[in-house]
Amino acid sequence: DYGDHVPGGPPGSPDEDGDRYVEIWNNVFMQFEKENDEIVRKLPKPSVDTGMGLERMTSVLQGKNSVFDTDLFQTLIAASEDATSTKAEGDRAASHRVIADHLRSSSFLIADGVTPSNEGRGYVLRRIMRRAMRHAHLLGAADPLMHRLVPTLVDQMGEAFPELARAQASIEDTMKQEELRFRTTLGRGMGLLDEATSDLSEGGVISGQTAFTLYDTYGFPLDLTQDEARRRGLSVDNDAFEAAMAQQRERGKANWKGSGQTASAGEWLSLRDRLGQTVFTGYDSIEGSGEVLAIVRGDASIDALEPGQTAEVLFDQTPFYGEGGGQTGDRGEVEWTDASGQQGFGVVLDVQKHAGGDLYAHKIEIESGTLTIGARAQLRAHAEQRLTTRANHSAAHLVHAALKNVLGPHVAQKGQLVDAERMRFDFSHNAPVTEEQLAAIETEVNAIIRQNVPVTTQLMTPQDAIEAGAVALFGEKYGDEVRVVTLGRALTGDNNGPYSVELCGGTHVARTGDIALFKITGETGIAAGIRRVEGVTGEAARQYLLAQAGVAKTLAQSFKVQPLDVPARVEALSAERKALEKQVADLKKQLALGGGSGGAAAPEEIGGVKLIARVLDGVDGKGLRGVAEDFR
């Protein structure tokens, strides 16, 4: 309670909108577990989460009426004032506050590896960044502003949060690039908004379709459009906007081919509660026995699976790895003896995890025999697929570490795919990776492979793992115990430290030398601030290099030079071709000007205007412009 000199009444009263009373503490009563927006069960131990607003308590202790008046924000607001040459007074005070608050939030998200995008946490980041950028524009900032304020934030909070200082360069670059992208559409979007509101008087409503177009075409988050509407004394038809968004999502679903899974998350959780977790034995072996606990076909549990039928089968334990962490599921075979004594055989097409990773569902196609609940089966994962997949997975870890070493600590994993054919790794970086950088990454990875040191795994708590230096994925959910995979020795210093330490539940090689060889096959951008590198290992890498060598040999034979001289020969031929093309263009120009049998072009005067008319064959647009210049 700030006292009766501040307008406002107690919460729940008609005057509650005033600033006299401010909540500094609340209680959250946690009772249910949700999955995919569906309440699936009551928590075994309901609890009350008590959360104190640290910054609100700071404002109370410092005797301030607002958190923005505390020393936590005043330094950032002062930097914003200097950068825009405006004071945080009157209507401009809110803009400076938005910039300071959103600068801080955005910086910490980027430091944690989040990049601006159109979905998930990336969209949350984009929304708050663009809202701050819009307010910078309102203050008259003609050039990107946000990145210029990052050093002030790092000076203020970098000591308490060293990850902020480590990622400073990445934060500045990400903010600058995002603001440049937004500014290319901001003017056009504001033009559309001006046009759409030109006939609206105060209290009018901006249509949901206009808000959707601003979002979909010009990158305006809804709350930014709402801010601008309030500034103009208008509102937005939120329901119509959400309807347009729903239609877009439905169009996306219609164009998306899913996995065919029809059992709901709640049904899988019910199976887990009734049957328990699947025990994974595949870290030590690719073979093992398991008892059939459930057979799920479509959205129904069945008792038996006949030849020609396909369903998802749960065993009490399995050596098959279920898809997760970017690693694809194992394939293989299953054999059993059915109730009639007939030998049964089925092909395991895929393995997926459900119920938070607790259940391993084997997609099995029956070729002979009848598979029933309670049957004891022998399970075998394909050895070659497992060997090459785990080599590619271990290589992905090494690539991650090499990317951080070569490009900088800002690099964060944004996705990966490892299967028997290749590895694909997506990461945050705001520029294409140069050929020299790719070569350095490849060199580091192969250096660790040549060390041929054992790959170690440990089980520990997530907190202990992170404190030990393990890389964890932002936003990933970890249990009470995690598996920590360590590969290689550091290439710098005394070589006693580890090269790569990550939290990972996937399968990996026993020694780094088992990867044999690594080769990068491609690097590209897949979204703003997200790059993708692809590579192959072992025999696939050898075959890739042989194919490249074959191409080089063929070119060398064609050019009658040594393979290493092919680039120089190609460059010489390219220069020669350009010279010949210039000669041809010059000859065509001479002919066009009358250097041929047609004689020189003579102008004639028509109605006081001099005209030169000539038919020119085989002259392109560039040549015609040159001829016209010479005719002058």
Structure description:
By secondary structure, this protein is of the alpha+beta class. The N and C termini lie far apart (84 Å). Helix 4 packs across helix 7. About 1% of the residues have low confidence. The protein has 17 helices and 24 strands. It has 5 domains: 51 residues, no CATH class; 146 residues, no CATH class; 117 residues, Elongation Factor Tu (Ef-tu), domain 3, CATH 2.40.30.130; 160 residues, 2-Layer Sandwich (Threonyl-tRNA Synthetase, Chain A, domain 2), CATH 3.30.980.10; 52 residues, no CATH class. The chain is 42% helix and 23% strand.
What are its keywords?
632 residues, alpha+beta, 6-stranded antiparallel β-barrel, 4-stranded antiparallel beta sheet, 17 helices, globular
Q: What would you call the structural class?
A: alpha+beta
Radius of gyration: 33 Å
Main beta-sheet annotation: 6 strands, antiparallel, barrel
Question: What is the CATH architecture term of the largest domain?
Answer: 2-Layer Sandwich
Q: Do you know the CATH topology of the largest domain?
A: Threonyl-tRNA Synthetase, Chain A, domain 2
Mean pLDDT: 87
Give me the secondary-structure topology.
Layout: E1 25-35, E2 38-52, H1 54-61, H2 71-84, H3 92-111, H4 120-138, H5 146-157, H6 162-166, H7 168-197, E3 205-206, H8 208-218, H9 222-231, E4 235-236, H10 238-254, H11 265-275, E5 279-280, E6 287-297, E7 300-302, E8 304-305, E9 310-315, E10 317-318, E11 332-337, E12 343-354, E13 359-368, E14 371-372, E15 376-381, H12 383-407, E16 413-418, E17 423-428, H13 435-451, E18 456-460, H14 462-467, E19 482-489, E20 498-503, E21 518-527, E22 530-537, H15 538-559, H16 566-595, E23 604-606, E24 609-611, H17 621-631
Helix pairs in contact: 2-3, 2-5, 3-4, 3-5, 3-7, 4-7, 5-7, 7-8, 8-10, 12-13, 16-17
